[in-house]
Amino acid sequence: MKKITRRDMLAHSSRIAASVGIGLPLLSQVTGGGAPGTSHKIKVVVAGAHPDDPESGCGGTIALYSDLGHEVVVLYLTRGEAGIPNKSAQQAAAIRTSECQKACAILKARPIFAGQIDGNTELSRSRYDDFGKLLQAEHPDIVFTHWPIDTHRDHRAVSLLAYDAWAQSRKSFDLYYFEVDQGSQTQQFYPTNYVDIGQTESRKRAACFAHASQQPETGFYQLHDKMNHFRGMECGCDLAESFVRHCQNLGTSLPQR
Fold first, then answer.
1. What is this structure's pTM?
2. Which end of the chain, N or C, is less packed with Cβ atoms under 10 Å?
3. In which element (H, E) is residue 257 found?
4. What is the CATH number of the domain that holds 137?
5. Taking Cα atoms as reference points, which of 106, 22, 98, 114 lies closest to residue 72?
6. Among the residues of 138-252, which ranges form H helices?
């Protein structure tokens, strides 16, 4: 039997990645509304449950889109009201809102807030309607949100709100899912697409570190750094973010290197 080397495994992983799509909605050559291959500006919305979720889940991809001149909006379901010990909800929200603004400035994105409360998010007809109106007002071409199989209720809530908005809009935008704290929060996540973030990981890291109240240097970013390296190994580059593409999307591809 032929001995399988690490190089063989990496080469095999690269072929697998190519077969499922290494890019996301192609940053430099997004098509749609024009002839195939026509470059045009798109609107990207990244919907996360809390401050730091969009940055840790796909901050490198956000930076890639914004660097190429596309408009990126980061939609936070909550302001992280329950996220700082010994702080009131109002105090925590003020601190974490400021951190969101700093992080988005680093990524060249625009923050908006859906007005729900950290740890007390709701799914109801009115919440679905309000979220759908907020999202549709942005006229997105692509929406990224949490994978719905997740141990955190707020993550599951925003995922379902985004999915409902996509369905109610008659699938007017492409829908992709991202992962956070793989294993401890996101579960059963099998990527369909990868984005090489080798050139933007430093900005992703800086944006995550803007959330100083969450101690990223000893907390959540340690795991995400490992995830970046692991997903890169899967698709044959140094660092990558991974996504699950909804199979009924319109057909936009993702950022490629």
1. 0.86
2. N
3. none
4. 3.40.50.10320
5. 106
6. 153-168, 201-209, 220-235
